[in-house]
Amino acid sequence: MSVLTPLLLRGLTGPARRLPVPRAQIHSKPPREQLGTMDVAIGLTSCFLCFLLPSGWVLSHLESYKKRE
Questions:
Q1: Hey, is 64 helix, strand or coil?
Q2: Where would you find the membrane-spanning parts of this chain (predicted)?
Q3: What is 4-61 written as a DSSP string?
Q4: What would the pLDDT profile of 16-51 be if each residue is shown by its tens digit?
């Protein structure tokens, strides 16, 4: 690497460092009603069924996908 490489790179990234970054003004309030145990159980079960079950099925049948017919 050349001796000038750090200077050139600093020259390219210098103006980008001075740009203002917009910040989101997000404020939240406490929930109106607390989640119950049944609500949490239903939510976790639905996440399991929607995401983990199909991916588990694909992983368990991976060898049959690799076979050429």
A1: helix
A2: 42-60
A3: THHHHHHHHHHHHHTSPPP---------SS---HHHHHHHHHHHIIIIIHHHHHHHHT
A4: 566 677 787 888 888 889 999 999 999 999 999 999
Cα 29–41–45 angle (5° rounding)? Answer: 115
How is residue 62 written in tokens? 């991976």
Question: Could you tell me the pTM of the whole model?
Answer: 0.46
Region label for 36, one of left (φ > 0), alpha (ψ between -120 and 50) or beta (otherwise): beta
**Per-residue tokens: 16:** 């980008």
Residue that is written with structure tokens 């119950």 in the block: 36
Provide the pLDDT for residue 43.
94
